[in-house]
Specification:
The protein has 112 residues and is mainly alpha-helical. Helices cover 77% and strands 0% of the residues. Helix 1 (2-11) packs antiparallel against helix 2 (21-43), helix 2 packs antiparallel against helix 3 (47-70) and helix 3 (47-70) packs antiparallel against helix 4 (80-102). The longest helix is centred in the middle third of the chain and has 24 residues, at 47-70.
């Protein structure tokens, strides 16, 4: 995701870089670093990494659900509402799978 955002902002045919480009770049880089650190923690069976993975599975689902409910209808050809609905159909089972996996007693017992 980070690579795609950098490519769009800096290597596209746009005449100028959007004003929020540094914020978006820092946010994507920060989330990528957080995910790498969490992955290392999961490999080392750290409990904080297990809990962070549950947060990472829940926060996008919650934000997409809020956005889908607050989204106002737009003119035809705007596929944002369709994208939000499809994202929810994907995020709900994925989030449930992570919660089922990481909250089982046998799995929780492995983390320290």
């Amino acid at each position: 995701m980070f690579e795609r955002a950098v490519r769009i902002f800096y290597f596209s045919d746009q005449s100028s870089v959007p004003a929020n480009a540094p914020f978006v770049r820092c946010t994507l880089l920060g989330s990528a670093l957080l995910e790498i650190i969490t992955a290392i923690g999961l490999l080392r069976l750290k409990n904080w990494a297990r809990q962070m993975s549950l947060c990472m599975a829940t926060i996008p689902l919650g934000s997409f659900a809020i956005e889908a409910t607050l989204r106002k209808p737009h003119p035809p050809g705007d596929f944002t509402a369709l994208f939000l609905e499809l994202a929810l159909w994907v995020l709900i089972p994925v989030s449930m799978w992570w919660w089922i996996l990481f909250t089982r007693k046998r799995i929780r017992a492995q983390f320290h």
